[in-house]
């Protein structure tokens, strides 16, 4: 009898376990699965810094292990498997990822960091389904998942630690322990799947098989939920299996859809209130009623009333009822911090840019999607080959608005980017396309030994003094030039904040080549962008921005690091800041 009917669905198929772990072999054998073992040759050397969360690292490693075997077998073993299973187990504690110790001292370092604490064990699993095509090519479908188990260790004395290390058990095990053997004595509790700690989350695996074989009606159904990725010329399909569609009407789902349908109305209400200076007015004169606000902003009472009420519902304003009188309005804390035009972190400038530039572009989104071109001509009546030169910097008004937008974003995000890394080794920096210098000022504020040159187009630099802070810092200076054409100022750190996404790879290569030529070994290059997740599934902020971009493209941290690598930069660290922009520090080798 087979407890889990899906295991029997695999009989007759060539199932391969791409793992040398004796524990994984045992867990799967004990479950009644019949398979061959072909250990993966994939070296576990992915850059951990490139992953937002530790489980993503484990899943990616599992994928690479399984794919390596799936691709090797037709050539080296002269047979194509039906299914390849790969897994990777890691232990995480205090933000560190622990894999197998390299020697006894490494085991000591790992075990002492686990002593007396709760930690997580993640196993990432990849299932590769191989479909041979008529032309002998193979289609790979990839399903991946992970499981987390929490484990708490007792306090470990030095004697205990060394006795355990000298037993030899830690050496081939993630985190330096084996919960299934002597290491079990170190454990106070386990929350979650025990076998996941041992190396394979059997229960979750069976549920995934069930989804694949019992719920996905046909492989074409699976394909419809798929994301296509191309690896070294072979065709890889990465799919996320989904439970059968739920046709029940759930209010929560309805709310999600409604929020999406109404999203543009909310944006436009915010833009309009901001454009009409409602937040500034209610800051200088709080507690006005709708008629008073209408009079000040020179609008109709009826329209103003609707706008104010909508802003209350969006959490931007508060209304106070007065007995027998009309309600009065005041800013919420959110409006005070971000919507007043004179607030330190004001987004007023960016909101105006959204309203006047991004909004018209998005109203032509359908044509943009159909044609795959920028819609400046339809939206603004003029063709723009270079969006900066032709559109943003052509008229004084548009230029100022664009600079205001960049200024407000840089002020909100600057500190998070400037403090993302230890930059104490650098004395001079050059912020390429640094616009008003707001980001540069954040860098000098955060790093007392650093001077920053802002390099931007002459049209920008001539206006930049309008934006200087009251207390000028003479460590920030400005140089006018075009970073694609002119010589770059010398510096030991170059900053590219919100620049590369605007350009296609060819242009990015031109710019990176110029920076690489200006750099000596050891020089730094700090990139700040929205980094897409490796599967390009999020964040939607980045993906939505791409819809109105002209020639540029949004990239993941790995994509950026590959571009940089081709110019002799290695990605040293990546920080996902939770602010507008993420950051990556690269070093010239
Ligand atoms: C926490 C813990 C881990 N392990 C073993 O640790 C290895 C992890 O390393 P991996 O890189 O995921 O696998 P591998 O052993 O190198 O094999 P491979 O799949 O070929 O990479 C696996 O063995 C697991 O069982 C235990 O046996 N017991 C435990 O309590």
Automatic annotation (TrEMBL):
TM segments?
Answer: none
Q: What is this protein called?
A: Acetylserotonin O-methyltransferase-like
Quaternary context: Homodimer.
Question: Which GO BP terms apply?
Answer: methylation
Task: Indicate the segments forming the O-methyltransferase dimerisation domain, all copies.
Answer: 260-341
Which organism's genome codes for this protein? Seriola dumerili
Keywords per UniProt: Hydrolase, Methyltransferase, S-adenosyl-L-methionine, Transferase
Annotated O-methyltransferase C-terminal domain ranges read 362-569
């Amino acid at each position: 009898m087979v407890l889990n009917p899906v295991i029997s669905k695999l009989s007759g198929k060539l199932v391969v376990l791409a793992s040398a772990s004796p524990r994984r072999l045992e867990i799967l054998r004990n479950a009644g699965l019949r398979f061959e073992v072909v250990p993966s040759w994939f070296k576990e050397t992915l850059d951990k810094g490139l992953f937002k969360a530790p489980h993503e690292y484990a899943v990616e490693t599992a994928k690479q292990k399984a794919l390596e075997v799936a691709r090797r077998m037709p050539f080296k073993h002269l047979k194509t498997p039906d299914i390849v299973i790969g897994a990777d187990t890691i232990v995480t504690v205090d933000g560190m990822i622990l894999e197998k110790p390299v020697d006894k001292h490494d085991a000591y370092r790992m075990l002492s960091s686990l002593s007396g604490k709760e930690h997580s064990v993640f196993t990432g699993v990849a299932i590769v389904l191989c479909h041979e095509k008529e032309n002998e090519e193979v289609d790979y479908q990839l399903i991946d998942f992970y499981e987390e188990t929490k484990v708490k260790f007792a306090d470990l004395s030095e004697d205990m630690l060394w006795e355990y290390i000298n037993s030899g058990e830690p050496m081939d095990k993630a985190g330096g322990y084996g919960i299934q053997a002597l290491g079990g004595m170190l454990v106070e509790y386990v929350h979650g799947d025990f076998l996941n700690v041992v190396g394979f989350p059997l229960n979750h695996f069976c549920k995934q098989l069930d989804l694949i074989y019992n719920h996905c009606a046909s492989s074409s159904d699976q394909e419809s939920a798929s994301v296509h990725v191309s690896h070294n010329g072979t065709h890889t399909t990465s799919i996320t299996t989904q439970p059968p569609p739920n046709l029940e009407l759930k209010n929560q789902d309805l709310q999600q859809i409604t929020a999406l349908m109404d999203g543009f109305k909310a944006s436009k209400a915010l833009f309009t209130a901001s454009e009409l200076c409602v937040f500034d007015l209610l800051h200088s004169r709080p507690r006005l009623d709708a008629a008073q606000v209408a009079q000040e902003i020179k609008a109709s009472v009826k329209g103003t009333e609707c706008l104010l009420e909508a802003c209350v519902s969006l959490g931007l304003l508060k209304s106070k009822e007065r007995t027998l009188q009309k309600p009065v309005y005041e800013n919420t804390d959110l409006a005070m911090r971000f919507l007043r035009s004179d607030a330190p972190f004001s987004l007023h400038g960016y909101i105006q840019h959204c309203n006047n530039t991004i909004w018209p572009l998005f109203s032509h989104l359908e044509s943009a999607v159909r044609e795959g071109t920028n819609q400046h001509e339809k939206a603004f009546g003029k063709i723009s080959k270079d969006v900066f030169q032709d559109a943003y910097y052509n008229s004084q008004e548009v230029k100022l608005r664009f600079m205001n937008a960049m200024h407000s974003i840089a002020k909100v995000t600057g500190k998070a980017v400037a403090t993302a890394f230890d930059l104490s080794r650098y004395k001079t920096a050059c912020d390429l396309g640094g616009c008003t210098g707001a980001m540069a000022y954040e860098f000098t504020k955060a790093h007392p030994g650093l001077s920053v040159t802002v390099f931007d187009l002459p049209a920008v630099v001539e206006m930049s003094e309008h934006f200087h802070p009251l207390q000028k810092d003479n460590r920030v200076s400005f140089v006018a030039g075009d970073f694609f054409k002119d010589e770059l100022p010398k510096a030991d750190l170059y900053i590219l904040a919100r620049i590369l996404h605007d350009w296609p790879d060819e242009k990015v290569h031109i710019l990176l080549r110029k920076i690489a030529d200006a750099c000596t070994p050891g020089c730094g290059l700090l990139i700040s962008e929205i980094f897409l997740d490796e599967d390009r599934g999020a964040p939607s902020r980045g993906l939505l921005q791409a819809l109105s971009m002209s020639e540029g493209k949004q990239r993941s941290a790995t994509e950026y690091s590959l571009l940089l690598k081709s110019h002799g930069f290695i990605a040293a660290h990546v920080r996902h800041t939770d602010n507008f922009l993420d950051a990556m520090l690269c070093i010239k080798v």
